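Help! Submission page says 'invalid entity' but I think these are all valid:
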Amino acid sequence: MRCLTHPLLRKLLSLPPQCVPGQGTLSKGAVLSLKQLFLRQNCSAGPGLMTATDMVNYWQKVFETNGIPEARESSQYIVSFVLGAKTFQSLDSKTLHTPLTALQQEQIQRLSHRRLQRMPVQYVLGEWDFWDLTLKMRPPVFIPRPETEDLVSLVVEEELQKCENSALCFPVPVPHPVILEIGCGSGAIALSLLCKLPQSRVIAMDKEEAAVDLTRENAHRLQLQERIHIIHQDVSHCSAKQLLLWGPIDVIVSNPPYIFHEDMASLDAEILCYEDLDALDGGDDGMRVIKTILALAPSLLKVSGVFLEVDPRHPDMVEHWLQAHPDLLLTLRAIHKDFCGKPRFLHIQKQSS
Amino acid sequence: SVPLLQAERKRNSLKLLELSEAELEEQFVRGDGPGGQATNKTNNCVVLKHIPSGIVVKCHQTRSVEKNRKIAREILQEKVDLFYKGEDSDVFKEKKAAEKQKQEKKRRAKENLERKQLFKEMQQLDKE
């Protein structure tokens, strides 16, 4: 696990000093006087009474003054969270105009101070949503990205289609797909697959103990612990035998570290200071872990199917690499785009004999 | 959750004009960044436009982009249906029926209250 906590390292990467956990460049005094000024101008519910909308406007201003990205979104998520909602848009009109209690204001302030240190919103709130699941989030375990929701859809579609195909041929029992996830992080992919494919089982592995613990915690919170087996293991150092305890694997899914090493330094402070860099850095060509997974796949797979999330430059690179390693008998079956139109997901299969 | 299921069943019973993806234009507030692992933007707002009618829906109801996309399509489908069918739209009819039910409930509650007040007054008179 690598986290950029060394001050010199951060300085060399030109990261803002307020990135240091525990330190903030904005002193408490400065925040209070800004608040007093704002209160005089913007208390819509009456003198000294701040509503949710007032709070959002206030903290948005504070974040903007301090160069915090997504100032408005951050303050909206924090205020909504304290009011028990997921997003600001989902709050009803009544709630929006009700003055906040002192406790609520204090909670918002406490969370906002963390955001002032460039902590990602998901870590500030300690939770985030992925599809229909609310998952606990904790640094430095990798925060699931919204694009990855599409990766889950692709695996689900493939599995449902297999069900349909087999039903058309002759009556067969509903299959119980065994899915292997490599690099499970917070458990987002594994757990949402378990929810969408009620007959499935998942083997989830991660080389970081913090990730294994968090996946386990999220599995228990969602009552899915009976259907998931979580292993603390590095895919680079594991054997096929260890992974075949539930029989041959139907699908491998992964969002492996795929960032090109030279691009790591230009990532936002939120990522560099708080997330596990090993969950991001894919080596010189971003393909170190991708190659490891593909090399392991043939000895694991019963049928076919490796689904990977990758950098937009990887589809061609992976295709060439597979052609250069014909002994693996794998082909690139499909490339899928993410919701921003970027080639993001690869579907690799065993070649039909 | 139960309320969501009820809403879904209700929606499924409405006959609405189908929207094809080809008629839709979708936008996300993501910026030009690399996306994927390299970015951690939390704005999952979906802006969905129905090109033929020009109707635009903005959805940021959940923290999941896929759910927002789904909800945006549902809301847009209702609005497009209303736009083309007007009072013939099932959406309009349902809203009208719901409004009628609400008014009916109010009227009945008012009547009951008046009846109770009258009864009380009469009891007072009997005592005197």
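Support: the input was valid. A stray whitespace character was the problem, and the output above is from the cleaned input. The radius of gyration of chain A is 23 Å.
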